[in-house]
Give the backbone structure.
Amino acid sequence: MQPQLPHQQKNRRIKRLHKRKTGLPPGTLLYTGEKKSSEITVHRIAYNSTNYAEKIFTDGNKLNLEVPEDSVLWLNINGLHNEKFIESIGNHFGLHNLILEDILNVFQIPKAEEYPETDQFYITLNEFYIDDQGKLNRDQISLLLGKGYLLSFQEEEGDYFEQIRERLRTAKGKLRKKNADYLLYVLLDSIVDSYYIILDQYSGQIDVVEETIFEKKNTNHLETIHQLNKDMIFLRRSIAPLQEILFRLLKEDAVLIEDETRLFLRDVLDHVQQVVSQIDVDREFLADLVQTNMANMNSHLNEIIKLLTLISTIFIPLTFIVGVYGMNFESIPLLHQPNGYFIVWGAMILISVIQILIFKKKKWL
Amino acid sequence: MQPQLPHQQKNRRIKRLHKRKTGLPPGTLLYTGEKKSSEITVHRIAYNSTNYAEKIFTDGNKLNLEVPEDSVLWLNINGLHNEKFIESIGNHFGLHNLILEDILNVFQIPKAEEYPETDQFYITLNEFYIDDQGKLNRDQISLLLGKGYLLSFQEEEGDYFEQIRERLRTAKGKLRKKNADYLLYVLLDSIVDSYYIILDQYSGQIDVVEETIFEKKNTNHLETIHQLNKDMIFLRRSIAPLQEILFRLLKEDAVLIEDETRLFLRDVLDHVQQVVSQIDVDREFLADLVQTNMANMNSHLNEIIKLLTLISTIFIPLTFIVGVYGMNFESIPLLHQPNGYFIVWGAMILISVIQILIFKKKKWL
Amino acid sequence: MQPQLPHQQKNRRIKRLHKRKTGLPPGTLLYTGEKKSSEITVHRIAYNSTNYAEKIFTDGNKLNLEVPEDSVLWLNINGLHNEKFIESIGNHFGLHNLILEDILNVFQIPKAEEYPETDQFYITLNEFYIDDQGKLNRDQISLLLGKGYLLSFQEEEGDYFEQIRERLRTAKGKLRKKNADYLLYVLLDSIVDSYYIILDQYSGQIDVVEETIFEKKNTNHLETIHQLNKDMIFLRRSIAPLQEILFRLLKEDAVLIEDETRLFLRDVLDHVQQVVSQIDVDREFLADLVQTNMANMNSHLNEIIKLLTLISTIFIPLTFIVGVYGMNFESIPLLHQPNGYFIVWGAMILISVIQILIFKKKKWL
Amino acid sequence: MQPQLPHQQKNRRIKRLHKRKTGLPPGTLLYTGEKKSSEITVHRIAYNSTNYAEKIFTDGNKLNLEVPEDSVLWLNINGLHNEKFIESIGNHFGLHNLILEDILNVFQIPKAEEYPETDQFYITLNEFYIDDQGKLNRDQISLLLGKGYLLSFQEEEGDYFEQIRERLRTAKGKLRKKNADYLLYVLLDSIVDSYYIILDQYSGQIDVVEETIFEKKNTNHLETIHQLNKDMIFLRRSIAPLQEILFRLLKEDAVLIEDETRLFLRDVLDHVQQVVSQIDVDREFLADLVQTNMANMNSHLNEIIKLLTLISTIFIPLTFIVGVYGMNFESIPLLHQPNGYFIVWGAMILISVIQILIFKKKKWL
Amino acid sequence: MQPQLPHQQKNRRIKRLHKRKTGLPPGTLLYTGEKKSSEITVHRIAYNSTNYAEKIFTDGNKLNLEVPEDSVLWLNINGLHNEKFIESIGNHFGLHNLILEDILNVFQIPKAEEYPETDQFYITLNEFYIDDQGKLNRDQISLLLGKGYLLSFQEEEGDYFEQIRERLRTAKGKLRKKNADYLLYVLLDSIVDSYYIILDQYSGQIDVVEETIFEKKNTNHLETIHQLNKDMIFLRRSIAPLQEILFRLLKEDAVLIEDETRLFLRDVLDHVQQVVSQIDVDREFLADLVQTNMANMNSHLNEIIKLLTLISTIFIPLTFIVGVYGMNFESIPLLHQPNGYFIVWGAMILISVIQILIFKKKKWL
């Protein structure tokens, strides 16, 4: 994708992370996002190494929530605006009320929690995309791993996981032979992979800004840098907590995660660390560019003022001299001499030359 | 609420956190705040899943402090200016003298302490509100959890907890079925929720400042930013210690907190972390805006000086030329030629055009 | 106390923390401070819940150093300039040579050490005061807790502990009923309390600077801020290590400190943390004020340069025009027309009006 | 090597660390670098204290991968662009798929992993060099230690390890008598040694910039500093993680590393820490130089403006005076006096002298 | 010592810490410093509480390296440029090759290592001095503690330890009665003591800079501050790691260090911490001074520009007016009136007075 300068994207306001339902009793389920799709669709996939069944429901249909024996069940719920519907799914799988709250409260920083009583592991994280107006947007993805099943909740019907579904259908890779915890890894891996794409776009933008700064030195690029920095702060805040979560997850002995999957999750952690480290480097670059931009502007100002000083210091004394000979005294020396005019010119040229020589010596020219 | 620019709120001075009673022996009880309400009122609520009793006393009345069997007792004390009265309550419940000191010394940063001998858990934290003059204000709330009872102390009769009382009255939610530790959670949750509202107002103000900076580039917005930053520093300092307190509380095995409540407190901790992380992001934004504002002002200055230089460098030489022909020499070349005047004009126009072309080439125009 | 602007206190140099006795063998006892009082006085107090004996010795007198049975002995030594005398006290109580060195080397950052072999606990910390010239000063207080006795060493005869002595005399509070470790707590608490007073004075000064900055925007206040910042750095450095010391003291099981006293020491720790946190907030404020001051000065400069540009760009072209009509050509158009003068004036007024309109449009006026 | 100023190296863009294969299923092997050499060569060395065998294969040849008994096998693979070939080697030695991915994904920050099931230890790190255009470049080196063998993978056929091979051939040092883990140490040591060379070159460049800044005070050196800083950020990011990796490696009991080798690895860690500490110091220097440069430019600007002010304030009043006597009034005082002209000159000289004296007193000259 | 301003010490380049022998096999012994003394001298001292023997050898002599029974042997080696000689000493005492490398590689940051197999403890640290040209210099001191002996290696024959030798000779202090580990402490203590002297000199220089900044506000002092800061960065880097080393040494149970000596080493640690804390404070001061200096220069610039604006805005309009009456129109009003000249003067004075009043009101005068 062609990097696009962010100042062409006026006024993009980043959605702040907050919790809108203040004032309600804790435990009240309320979707805090916008209704992004008209209806909720549920993608039901059940697979094992030999069989694969896929079906799409909407929240109007009766849903089959049974976990089939010897198969992995993956329910992908698109759209969260129907709290009753989400609650009914939650109740069927015995989800703690706090999980349901977190799924619906879509302005979260990433978090993860193990629920040993129900043998469930819950993780929520963010997916990013840049919309048509060039604004950075965020979708919250919640993943719930249980025994033999995985629930994934997302705000709008995107195709984040279509590639994974395709691989399931064609039985490509070892995904079909593995358990639900491996599916969790695959989903996490695909989300973290998408961070690289977003970061690449920003890196491209930063490179463009950098080049522009060194080409158009007299321009103020801080508005552009400010927008980029704002997005980087936002990305860092929405991604960085993942590090600690995955680290904790790998340290503690979550029963649901098999040892082999643990190795893969460590790989995901490595990637998240790379992403965060890249964000930090980019932010350092931006801070550097702010300084460079300032210095360039100062340097440009110096040049302008130097010119002003040059012209002024040369011509102001000359103007004074011609003023002297414009006075209406009758007895001004040289005035009535035939060569007086040229002698005065000679003096003025001499003064100018001396001044220019002084400037040259002081390296101001 | 409509975000309001803080520079309309002149001279608001944040109450500093300190301890006024220096010089007194430790253990002396002294209320360090202002007397905010005329009399102290005590809200006494006793409830279990079936019964609910509510009564309001003042410090003049005789108070029933007995903890009823099979019920949860919640005493909400509004107003702290009568030290004797607070001490009498403290003595009845066997509160350590240090707790009483902390309750009355209302310039505290949040802290919590477990007293295993008396099976009590004490936590103090802050509630914020913006008053009529737009100033940020702070109330200290102290909560004491004991076996079967909860005491809450606040400086002035606010309606912080009215919603919770209403839920108790109507037996909404599971609050009535739970123990005093769950009530503690509900109170903490409601206080932390109110932080979101305060932060939302500040986020709104910051957005307004940001827009103004990019619209009125030649203005100094630093006074506004300074005020916002001051409030953010204050908020961070008054909220951030809560993180560590709750974290410690969840790690250690406080006997009074049931396992299930622990899960809810972790949720409160998540919210506090979100709030603090939002404050940090807002402060980074403000620091960014300071730089942007400075750069805008510099950029504006450059433009002005560029104009000055332009006008000066064009007209100063011209003025010199016309000065030359204003000299009273008789034998100035061209002076007595019929077209002399127009030749001089031609020369002057030529000089101006050349200067403008040079400026264009150097991209100063 | 009325806050006083520090720039009225010229040239106050903070005493640097260092060790003057370099070059001497380790173990050499040498007082590194100034001789602040003419003679050393020793305040000997022995008390229990029923009895109280107080006596003042000087270093000339024979000293009774015996620890009375069933009583707490408190020796308060004022003045350290007689190394022999201090050593004799140290030898009587079996103090390690390193302790004696630390007592006499009065440019210490706070430290604490337990000596399990001799059942002694040593802590040294600083007391601050602002002298007549408004300079910040520091006294080192060393406290040594032993079984049944407490030694306190200070450089000059101050009245830091007079209030505590008064309370001992009148048997106010529970101080008389407690052991020497409680006396240690009371002394620490009184010292930490005094930090609040110092900080309050600085907070007042910072407020004054803040107001002045926003009133006199064109002045450079950085010298004042620089002095305040220097004092804050000094205070932080001299107080902050106390946090870690008390923290360690509370964690480890110092045998000399009873469990109940431990609870009180935790309270002292809370206060030290509040003080340090207040210093940090004040330093952030000062850093903020530096930026605000800079921006105000820039903003003021912009205004001045704007005026210069305005006057120059309006009058320089006009001066050129009048110069044209001052040339001595005979055939200048308009010159000999009757209304020529007024036509030129009209043109000049027109040019000025157009320039002013352009400035207004560009919002430079 | 002669330090070379980086601004002579226009537009060098640092390769960003990222993972290009987003969108592919995890486990897909794909080389993410450029094809740097035409064919893959494999250096096969088998040695013990008495024997030494060396052979070079290309990816076209059939490879002998057997680990000889009583010998150490070292396979050095140059070039990674043939994924199939790398995979076949990996399969023979039982490498985990994640290792193969990491070997081929050459935009890694350093990492290390132990695989206890297969008794393998994997470490990847970076080698740096400055190419012909003066750009900083990076090669990824992956080392895999197994029982009796060591595999080293590098992107391009460099001579990083030729010295080590030479030492093996000539049986110099104790290398030939030791096991494969000592060879790992020798390779790591040689890579870390090369960091010193790179850093020396940058230190030289920084010294040149520093000198230039103090010689040509009126120039903007920020572009050069910006480029140096960018490289330092890049180096730090690519080297610093090695510290943690080696630290962990020394703490945990990796079975493959003998105790004696551990001591040598600690030495490598010391060197890495020195390198990183030197980078940090260099970055602090650069930050310092940015400030110094800015201040120098400001100082130069002050001088220029001082001159402008001097000339203007002296001549502007004088020009006004001569203008007065150029007015066409008939009755201007002094105008018709014989000495009038000289009296006016006297007044003008007086004014100039007074102004210059004032400037001198204010130390502006 | 009289503090000396560093800008009198042109061009002092700090020796960078690095390792010059890159390219050599690990284990090669090579002295990386300059040959500072013509020959290596070895100071051999053997002592116990009753006997004392001292002898000086050079590297040409045959050396007696035997550790005498019941005595402490201290070998102080001055000069490291003869690698063979150092190696022969190392071999006699069974030093690990890595120790020998570290002794000879004199661009080390401080480090310490225990070698339990040989019952040896190795520590290397830096000694600083300011040479005749006012440049900061560094010597590396390596100390090796073994059973009954201590080896000290230094680059050049200095008198760092002469005082200690004198104390040994005269049997002053308890040094003669103690073991080799106490000698180690005494040497460390003397080195750390010398840090105070260096820091005192820098503190003096910083005070001078501070005063100069507030006296000569219009000067750029950044070059001086830059040099001081560079030295402070260097000192910090060369001293700070000592903290961690001593801390680890005190925690772990190094068998060679007796419990009593441990107490003294803790005292050395306290001193190192004070030194590092003083360096940090000094660096904060320097950062503060940079800002103050900048602000002073800005403030000075403001004053100059204010003057320029004042003169210009007053005289430019006046010059225009006199220009008007210098035009050659015949019918200019007032021109032919007798009082015209004085009326114009009146108008000009009025304009000036009004402008000055406006300036006064705006507080620009």
